[in-house]
Every structure is written in C-alpha cells, then in structure tokens.
Amino acid sequence: MTLLETLARGSGAIAAYAAVGLILLIVGFYVIDWATPGKLSEVIRSERNPNATLLATSALAAIGLIVAASIWSAGGRLGEGLAGTAVFGLVGIVVQTLAMLIFDKVAGISVRDLVKEQELQPGARLLAVTHVAIGLITAVAVI
Length: 143
Hints:
By secondary structure, the protein is mostly helical. It contains 6 helices and no strands. The protein is elongated, with a radius of gyration of 17 Å.
C-alpha cells in the first residue's frame, strides 16, 4: 500500500469515527435536554445556568471517553470499531440517564431542580462526577 493510499484510508476512518462520535454527542445532548426543564441550549446560552452547563459538559465528556475506548479496542478493524462505538456509546447514554434518575430517587438530587438554580450547586458537581465516572467505567469495560 502506498503512502497516499494509507493516508486516504486513515483519513476516511477518522472521518467515519468522527461522524459516529458527533452523532452520539448530539444524541447525548438531547437526552440530557429531555431530562432537564426547558430547552437545554437556551438554559445554557441565555440563562447562563452553571448547573445545566456542568451536567451537559460532563455527560458529553463521558460519551467522549466511551467513543475513544471503543475506537481503541477495535484494533484497526473499522467496521467492528464503528459498530462497537455506536452500540457502546448508546449504552453509555442510557446508563448515564438511568444514573440521573436513580440519584433523583435514592439521593434526592433532582436534575430538574438543579437547573432551576442560578448558582452552582453541590448536587450538580456530584452528578457531573457521576457522569464522568460512568463514562470511564463503560470505557474500561469496552476495552
């Protein structure tokens, strides 16, 4: 294989993984949007709500961890890697959403209440770390 062929193949793989990763990030954002009152992008952009911002960014970071681990674990097998990335990313989104619902019931930390607060709340920090931890756990499980 020539250098040009190698570069073209690698660039195509990067573009494919980036597309799957972007789709997962968008899905993850809309799932967080569903779990919070109001339109999340408006709550972040217009209201400049730090709790909503922290929860959304931590969820997206966790999805990024899962996507990266899925790519790494594919070992260069593009088709398997793309399928694994899509499936494991969706599983990670579901698990994060369930964790938010469980925290609401078990610990009494409501995402809906948190995003109504204009100052950064301890519960938002706890849920943000939970997002990243679940992303890391899922990522390591993929590997």
